[in-house]
């Protein structure tokens, strides 16, 4: 990527210079207030081709600088959201949204596990996998 940057300094300047105003970086495209930015708890980067590698680099930088977990998904990846009832923001972000009942965050994890276990079971059966003999089971379970 550094090679491309050296080959196209004007393109880099044209990309960065409109986002600097009075010595400050401005990202109006985000459309988020500072208060909204402070509430971000997770970032998803979706990219394809060589942009995927840029996304992986951005993941490292973002996680170190913001201390927010970042996931990079390749375009075409199937994204499924698991969230509390009433959180309809996820519908726009995921291909499928699985809702669990409102509960304390301590109990929500247990509620989410049940449908995810069922999903794993049904996907495994549909793929013709033996659900009673999962791969690498011997590494996970010790028989006495």
UniProtKB/TrEMBL annotation:
Query: SUPFAM superfamilies recorded for this chain?
Result: SIS domain
Q: What's the catalysed reaction? A: D-fructose 6-phosphate + L-glutamine = D-glucosamine 6-phosphate + L-glutamate
GO terms, biological process? fructose 6-phosphate metabolic process; protein N-linked glycosylation; UDP-N-acetylglucosamine metabolic process
Alphabetical UniProt keywords: Aminotransferase, Transferase
Where is the signal peptide, in residue numbers? none
* GO function term, MF aspect, one: carbohydrate derivative binding
Q: What class of enzyme is it?
A: transferase
Could you tell me the EC number(s) of this protein? 2.6.1.16
Q: Which PANTHER family match?
A: GLUCOSAMINE--FRUCTOSE-6-PHOSPHATE AMINOTRANSFERASE, ISOMERIZING, GLUTAMINE--FRUCTOSE-6-PHOSPHATE TRANSAMINASE (ISOMERIZING)
**Name this protein carries in UniProt:** Glutamine--fructose-6-phosphate aminotransferase [isomerizing]
């Amino acid at each position: 990527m550094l090679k491309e940057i050296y080959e196209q300094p004007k393109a880099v300047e044209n990309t960065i210079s409109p986002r600097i105003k009075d010595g400050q970086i401005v990202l109006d495209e985000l459309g988020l207030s500072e208060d909204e930015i402070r509430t971000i708890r997770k970032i998803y980067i979706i990219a394809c081709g060589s942009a995927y590698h840029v996304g992986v680099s951005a993941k490292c930088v973002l996680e170190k600088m913001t201390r927010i977990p970042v996931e990079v998904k390749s375009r075409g990846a199937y994204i499924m959201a698991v969230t509390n009832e009433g959180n309809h923001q996820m519908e726009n972000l995921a291909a499928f949204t699985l809702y669990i009942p409102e509960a304390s965050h301590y109990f929500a994890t247990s509620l989410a596990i049940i449908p995810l276990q069922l999903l794993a079971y049904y996907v495994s059966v549909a793929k013709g996998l033996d659900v009673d003999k999962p791969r690498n089971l011997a590494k996970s379970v010790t028989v006495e």
